[in-house]
Write a structure and sequence with these properties.
Blueprint (H helix, E strand, L loop, with lengths): L5 E2 L5 H10 L7 H10 L13 H10 E2 L8 E4 L5 E7 L3 E10 L2 E5 L3 E3 L8 H5 L1 E4 L2 H14 L6 E4 L9 H12 L11 E5 L3 H9 L5 E5 L5 H7 L8 H15 L3 E7 L7 H11 L4 E7 L12 H11 L4 E3 L29
Parallel strand pairs: 1-2, 6-9, 9-10, 10-11, 11-12, 12-13, 13-14
Antiparallel strand pairs: 3-4, 4-5, 5-6, 7-8
Bound molecules: iron/sulfur cluster (SF4).
C-alpha cells in the first residue's frame, strides 16, 4: 500500500530542521532546502539547487513537492484589480486578488475554500465551508499573486475567502514560511490578518512572537443587529472581542484596524456612528469604512458614507474611506465566491 507523503512546503524551518535530524542529516541543511523550495521555487526534491545529493535523496523518501497549481481563471477589473481562481485537491476552489493602490500592490489571500461563518452579506458565507486550506495552498496563492504582480507586492492581507482564525494553524505556518529570511522574506509587519472576532485566537496572537497586524470586522456596533448579520457574535460578542483587542494593542504596542462595512439604511445612521465611536475611541485604532457592494450590483458610494466618516472623525476616531476595488469582477469585499454566487439575502433593518 502506498503512503501519501507530506508536502515539504508545509514545514516551517524549525520543523524542517527536526525532520532532517530524524532522517540522520544535519539540521543546518534546512536553510539551503528552504531557500531552494520557497525562493528558487524548486519543484523536484531530487534536484533541488544548492542541496547535497544525500540530503535530496533522504528528503525524496520522506516528503513530496507538488508543482504549484496554475490559476484556473484570471479576471481583470476596469480599475486594474486582478482576481485569480486556484482549484485545490478535493474540488476546493479559492480566490486571491491583487489590488493596485497608487504605486503599491497588495495581495488578498483566502484561508479557506468557502466559509462556515454565514455572515448574511457575504458571498463566501453563502457558499458554506468546503474545507480549510493547507499552508502550501495558502503559499500557492501568494506565489500566483506575486507572479501576477511581476514580483512586486508591498503588502499582504488575509481577507479573502474564509475566517483565518478558524484555520489559524495553517495561516500561522504560511506567515512563518513567507516571512522566513530563507523563504520570501516578506515582512510580517506588512501582513494583516482579518477576523470577525475569534477571541481565543486573538489572545493566542497577542501571546505570540508574531508581528502581523490585526484587523477586526465590526459590521455593526449594536449587538443585536450584529448578531443578525454576523452569527459569530453569538459565540464571541463584540464587547469581548474588543477586550481581547485592547490587550493585543497593549502587548504589541500596535494599532488595530476595524473594518466597518456600511450598509445603506441599515448601519449608517448617526446613532450607529455614535455607538461605534463610543466603543472604539479608547482603542489605538483606525476604522476602515467600506461601502457595501452587493454581488452583481453597481457598487459605489451613497450619500451617508462621507457624512458617517465626518461623524466618526468629529468623535475623535481615525477613519479611512476605503476605495472600492474590483466590484465589476466580484473581487470587492464580501464578493469572493469562486463561481457565480447564489445571491445572499443581505442585511435588513428590523
Ligand atoms: S465575512 Fe468573512 S467570516 Fe463572514 S462569511 Fe464572509 S468570509 Fe466568512
Amino acid at each position: 500500500m502506498s503512503v501519501e507523503l507530506a508536502d515539504i512546503r508545509g514545514l516551517s524551518r524549525p520543523e524542517l530542521e527536526e525532520a532532517l535530524t530524524r532522517l540522520g542529516e544535519k539540521p543546518s541543511h534546512a536553510a539551503a532546502v528552504f531557500l531552494a523550495v520557497h525562493r528558487l521555487r524548486g519543484c523536484d526534491l531530487a534536484s533541488l539547487p544548492g542541496v547535497p545529493e544525500r540530503v535530496r535523496a533522504a528528503l525524496s523518501r520522506a516528503f513530496s513537492l507538488a508543482p504549484l497549481p496554475a490559476p484556473e481563471r484570471r479576471q481583470v477589473s476596469r480599475d486594474g484589480t486582478k482576481k485569480l481562481l486556484l482549484r485545490f485537491p478535493g474540488d476546493a476552489p479559492a480566490e486571491c486578488v491583487v489590488l493596485p493602490a497608487k504605486d503599491r500592490l497588495a495581495a488578498c489571500l483566502s484561508s479557506q475554500s468557502g466559509c462556515a461563518c454565514g455572515c448574511t452579506f457575504c458571498a463566501t458565507g453563502a457558499l458554506g465551508l468546503k474545507r480549510s486550506l493547507t499552508s502550501p495552498e495558502i503559499i500557492a496563492q501568494f506565489e500566483a499573486c506575486l507572479a501576477e504582480a511581476a514580483g512586486r507586492l508591498n503588502s499582504l492581507v488575509f481577507m479573502g475567502m474564509g475566517e483565518p482564525f478558524l484555520n489559524w494553524e495553517n495561516v500561522r505556518r504560511a506567515i512563518l514560511t513567507l516571512s522566513d529570511s530563507r523563504g520570501r522574506h516578506f515582512p510580517q509587519a506588512k501582513m494583516t490578518v482579518s477576523t470577525v472576532g475569534v477571541v481565543p485566537v486573538i489572545e493566542e496572537l497577542t501571546a505570540s512572537d508574531l508581528r502581523v497586524r490585526l484587523a477586526v470586522s465590526v459590521v455593526a456596533a449594536d449587538e443585536e443587529q450584529r448578531a443578525r448579520m454576523v452569527p459569530m457574535e453569538r459565540t464571541y460578542p463584540l464587547r469581548r472581542v474588543l477586550e481581547a483587542v485592547r490587550a493585543y494593542c497593549r502587548a504589541k504596542e500596535a494599532l488595530v484596524m476595524f473594518e466597518y462595512i456600511l450598509f445603506r439604511g441599515v448601519n449608517d445612521r448617526p446613532s450607529d456612528s455614535a455607538l461605534l465611536a463610543g466603543l472604539v475611541k479608547d482603542i489605538p485604532c483606525r476604522v476602515n469604512l467600506i461601502p457595501y457592494n452587493p454581488p452583481g450590483g453597481p457598487g459605489g458610494e451613497f450619500p451617508r458614507v462621507k457624512q458617517f466618516q465626518r461623524e466618526l472623525i468629529a468623535a475623535g476616531v481615525r477613519t479611512y474611506l476605503r476605495q472600492e476595488r474590483g466590484a465589476d469582477i466580484a473581487a470587492a469585499c464580501g464578493q469572493l465566491a469562486s463561481r457565480p454566487p447564489a445571491q445572499p439575502q443581505g442585511p435588513g433593518r428590523e
